Amino acid sequence: MATEQVRHMLDSDVVCGNGVLAGFSLLIIDVCKNPKKYQNPLITCVAATALAETMMVSSVFCNENMQLLVTMLEKCSEENVRLSLVIAFGDLLFKFPNTVEPWTRFLYARLRDESWKVRRNTLLVLSHLVTNEMVKVKGQISEVALCIVDENEEIVDLAKRFFSELSLKGNTLYNVLPDIISHLSNPASDVTVEEKNFEIILKYIMDQIQKEKQLENLVEKLCKRMKESICERQWKDLAFCLSLLPWSDRSLRRLIDHAYCFCDRLLYQPVATLFLNIVATVTRSN
């Protein structure tokens, strides 16, 4: 009972309404909403940090100001503000998961920030949240995959470590792998990547999958994706992923059973070449 009363007090009577800090909250919001009025970078940074800390007090205040926080995270030109808000986002997601989780796409988006420091902080926060199962792994994980070809080596190492740790989480990496492939190779996606970088990314990620049963099932999943895909780039990318797999009798049988999914795609020469590579690999192993 006492716990509920304290929670209610924090939600409604401290930084909201007539709460003792409500006046300060209004000032903080005013500074954050009016960057042209308050042009001092230090004031902006302090206000952004104060906004996030005030949101930590009350779920009501947090819910009311998430849009303001993600707007600053997206549009503020001050690197230090974005650095602070990325860290704060992770704290808020831990404190009020139901309120903050629907906004996580804005956190993933900072993996493409112009600042390598912001990208690094974002990756560190996401790695902590995902590997500790505080946030579900969704299709946006392809944004993390892109970090494997980041221009900054520290970010590349962090991204590789992320997928190595994710591979230890049961079927998690295996389950999202087909979506990663589709997102990175789909011309209509906003995360398309050059073929060379696609191959670097998928070679590393697929090397993390070692369980024989997962590898067998992956053959089937990739074949079915090839049947469903409609463009040559996706056919080639999926065939490339198949060519990376270690082949056993069982996985080869699975490939043959699903030949109907890709037989017409073999008319496209790059796909045919990759399947010939698979045949050569199997032949050598036998």
TrEMBL record:
Domain of life: Eukaryota
Cellular-component GO terms for this entry: condensed chromosome, centromeric region; condensin complex; nucleus
Gene Ontology biological process terms from the UniProt entry: cell division; meiotic chromosome condensation; mitotic chromosome condensation
A Pfam family matched in the record: Cnd1
Swiss-Prot/TrEMBL keywords: Cell cycle, Cell division, DNA condensation, Mitosis, Nucleus
GO molecular function: histone binding
Nucleus recorded as keyword: yes
Subcellular location: Nucleus
Transit peptide listed as a keyword: no
First-listed, main subcellular location of the protein, grouped into a coarse class: nucleus
Residue stretches making up the Condensin complex subunit 1 C-terminal domain: 81-243
Identification of the protein by name: Condensin complex subunit 1 C-terminal domain-containing protein
Species whose genome carries this gene: Homalodisca liturata
Lineage: Eukaryota, Metazoa, Ecdysozoa, Arthropoda, Hexapoda
